[in-house]
Amino acid sequence: MSKTVLDLIGNTPLVESKVLNTNPNVKLYFKLEGHNPGGSVKDRPAYNMIKSALERGDIDSSSKLIEATSGNTGIALAMIAGIYNLKIELVMPENSTKERVQTMRAYGAKVTLTSSDVGIEGARDYAEAKVRDEGYLMINQFANDDNWKAHYKTTGPEIWKDTNGKITHFVSSMGTTGTIMGTSTYLKEKNKAIQIVGVQPTDDSRIPGIRKWPEAYLPKIFNPKKVDRIMEVSEAEAVEMAKKLAKEEGIFSGMSSGGAATVALRLAATLESGTIVSIVCDRGDRYLSSDLFD
């Protein structure tokens, strides 16, 4: 049966930690989202947000789309918009890795770089001004229910099925919070006892893709009731774990995946028994121009 690129989104592999997890009574699985065609977990919400908006008639080929992104969502939106022949402008801080900017442009998107001094918040402000003053339409991953619903429809059911319903803990980094919101909603419907663990950076850490948002920028889709526990990880721990994942488990990923794995392993060490699933949200080749693997 012939497939389109869109048919390849989701159904990513779940692989067991064979080296880093040393607790014999706990199974730790990594869900490899870098296997999506656009290279990250963000293919899921990007596809759902654009497809749903088209189906509702909210957007069409004449729409001028815009989105602020720190990287992976932008790449996914650029890919999906290209497939549907939609025009999109992606706004990101100028210190984003070169690979990300080039990948978005390769898919046909317009990329605008804003000052790194104001970070992703500055990119969001720029995009909002374009919506207000120039008639652009924002995908708005931070407030778009189609973001978390993508994970309710796909990520949650895949994890439930692939662990044969045995999952006890789900660990995910928190950025837009779409992954953790949608997956939590599905898993809690299946079994209320499953613990949902969110990962945030410590106050002095900068980890791309994971944020501790100021109140004014907190994603509208975030519902604290859907997260049982938030654990913090430092930049140094996330970097070290990304390197360990590559070297010892053969899993090449970015820093936010290293952060989630750090927390998953910390958790595994404290449990008497259980089945943990940790999200590996993208691939390491997206970070080669940064100093992550130096």
UniProtKB/TrEMBL annotation:
Belongs to the cysteine synthase/cystathionine beta-synthase family. InterPro entries: Cys_synth (IPR005856), Cys_Synth/Cystath_Beta-Synth (IPR050214), CysM (IPR005858), P-phosphate_BS (IPR001216), TrpB-like_PALP (IPR001926), TrpB-like_PALP_sf (IPR036052). It catalyses: O-acetyl-L-serine + hydrogen sulfide = L-cysteine + acetate. Pathway: Amino-acid biosynthesis; L-cysteine biosynthesis; L-cysteine from L-serine: step 2/2. It comes from Flagellimonas allohymeniacidonis. PANTHER family: CYSTATHIONINE BETA-SYNTHASE (PTHR10314). Pyridoxal 5'-phosphate binds at residues 72, 175-179, 256. The keyword Transferase applies. Gene3D superfamilies: 3.40.50.1100. The modification N6-(pyridoxal phosphate)lysine is found at residue 42. Keywords: Amino-acid biosynthesis, Cysteine biosynthesis, Pyridoxal phosphate, Transferase. It holds the Pfam family PALP. This is Cysteine synthase. Its EC number is 2.5.1.47.
